[in-house]
Specification:
49% of the residues lie in helices and 9% in strands. It contains 20 helices and 9 strands. Strand 1, helix 6 and strand 2 form a beta-alpha-beta unit. It binds S-adenosylmethionine (SAM). S-adenosylmethionine (SAM) binds next to loops. S-adenosylmethionine binds next to loops. Keywords: 4Fe-4S, Iron, Iron-sulfur, Metal-binding, S-adenosyl-L-methionine. This is [FeFe] hydrogenase H-cluster radical SAM maturase HydG. Its cofactor is [4Fe-4S] cluster.
């Protein structure tokens, strides 16, 4: 079994190819060892997680009864740690200029016909206003890697602009950042700019494949990319989001790598990843997902989500509009805690949807519904869409967030906060239909707050939001 060494932040040590292959071999040898599978499921029932080796066995196991148990446990853990709350966010594409050669991404430098765009600060403002008009409070900014067109100063300017726009009760309260791996110095600057989570997908943990899939540009450097989260944490960012792009490599390899990465971060920095994203490759400008051999079907995808949920109960899980409504519905109950809504993956696409000819989008979106439709759909499924960013704004990030989560106390503060931010959304932005569904739901949910004092305060605040134009409690 691998030991994570606090003094070694070298990629090849914490994402050890030999250890991953050994875990997969162990999983193959034990996938029908139902005694062991049951033991792992029993361990998972303690809700303290399981390691990459144990997760690999569950992923390899094909016993129908056991898979059902895994799904039921994932549902239970999801309910216990996150309740019915689903955090809402939207991606904001700043620039698709990119010097890398990633073979699965239409932003690759050799793509000469995609429309290259970079938002000016005025355009950023317009995008934010359009997003605020929809009701968003939490964004994930996205950009290609290009030191000349998108240097860190540009990203910092954009963050400043985003936080400065306050339109229709609408300040963006949390900006998460998905930009290429960078230096400790730059991570410090991002921290100072007040970012939420720093997100970087590993794409694949398999070094050989990684180098082939990223043949040119700074992203080719596997070690630099893989060690980025350690640099981010050294730079003071304590919420980091990891993920792989499913379809590039064998999914069993990726799950083991992903969990080893989480184990490494927890062992070395005392806090695991804040979120895990599970994107799958999508069709895009000159990209055909069928050109990649490792695509996974919806059932396998659901199983991966369920196993991540039980392996790292305290880590949020994100699903984007890459997935369809039906897939999103299935994985929401198995472990997803954050979803995007009303997303545009083109640069400048919120203020002015673009024509087909000027396509600047990163990938085709499978869920094209508006935020209002997604919010109503979630509520009709019994979820509470949450626009809450209180933890981040109160400084409850990193280990402070994790210890709150582990203590079980998160339920007592998150539930009323979610209801209050939902009420704000309903009053300020929702259609009549959505508001009616939502306000009924809020009335029912208020009664579920166990602590009487908290329940009374939440009711007063909801009353004030609805009737006295008060906000942001
Ligand atoms: N440029 C940054 C970097 O290098 O990490 C990140 C920004 S990129 C806009 C965000 C993510 O989109 C990538 O990390 C990749 O996983 C994903 N992506 C790229 N091409 C995709 C495709 N064809 N389908 C689905 N996701 C894709």
């Amino acid at each position: 079994m691998i030991r994570y060494d606090k003094n070694s932040l070298k990629a090849e040590e914490f994402i050890n190819d030999g250890e991953i292959l050994d875990s997969l071999k162990f999983a193959d040898e034990n996938k029908n060892n139902l005694e062991l599978v049951d033991k792992i499921i029993e361990k998972a029932r303690l809700k303290k997680g399981i390691n990459h080796r144990e997760a690999s066995v569950l992923l390899a196991c094909e016993d129908k009864e056991r898979i059902k148990e895994i799904y039921n446990l994932a549902r239970q853990i999801k309910k216990d740690f996150y309740g019915d709350r689903i955090v809402m966010f939207a991606p904001l594409y700043l620039s698709n200029y990119c010097v890398n050669g990633c073979v699965y991404c239409p932003y690759h430098a050799k793509n000469k016909h995609i429309c290259r765009k970079k938002l000016t600060q005025d355009e950023v403002r317009k995008e934010v206003i359009a997003l605020q008009d929809m009701g968003h409070k939490r964004l994930a900014i996205e950009a290609g890697e290009d030191p000349v067109n998108n240097p860190i100063e540009y990203i910092l300017d954009c963050i400043k602009t985003i936080y400065s726009v306050n339109h229709r009760n609408g300040a963006i309260r949390r900006v998460n950042v998905n930009i290429a791996a960078t230096t400790v110095e730059n991570y410090k600057k991002l921290k100072e700019a007040g970012i939420g989570t720093y997100i970087l997908f590993q794409e694949t943990y398999n070094k050989k494949s990684y180098e082939q899939l990223h043949p040119t540009g700074p992203k080719h450097n596997y070690n630099y990319h893989t060690e980025a989260m350690d640099r981010a944490m050294q730079g003071g960012i304590d919420d980091v989001g990891i993920g792989v792009l499913f379809g590039l490599e064998l999914y069993r390899y990726e799950l083991a790598g992903l969990l080893m990465h989480a184990e490494h971060l927890e062992a070395v920095h005392g806090v695991g990843p804040h979120t895990i994203s599970v994107p799958r490759i999508k069709a895009a400008d000159d990209i055909n997902p069928d050109d990649f051999d490792n695509g996974i079907d919806d059932e396998t995808f659901a199983k991966i989500v369920a196993i991540i949920r039980i392996a790292v109960p305290y880590t949020g899980m994100i699903i984007s509009t890459r997935e369809s409504e039906s897939v999103r519905k299935k994985v929401l109950e198995l472990g997803i805690s954050q979803i995007s809504g009303g997303s545009r993956t083109s640069v400048g696409g919120y203020d002015e949807p673009e024509s087909e000819e000027e396509n600047s989008a990163q990938f085709d979106v499978s869920d094209n519904r508006s935020l209002d439709e997604v919010v109503r759909w979630l509520m009709n499924l019994g979820y509470i869409p949450s626009f809450c960013t209180a933890c981040y704004r109160e400084g409850r990030t990193g280990d402070r967030f994790m210890s709150l989560c582990k203590s079980g106390q998160i339920q007592n503060c998150c539930h009323p906060n979610a209801l209050m931010t939902l009420e704000e959304y309903l009053v300020d932005y929702a259609s009549n239909d959505t508001r009616n569904v939502g306000q009924k739901l809020i009335e029912q949910e208020l009664e579920k707050i166990p602590n009487e004092k908290v329940r009374t305060i939440a009711k007063e605040h909801i009353f004030d939001i609805r009737n006295n134009n008060k906000r942001d409690f």
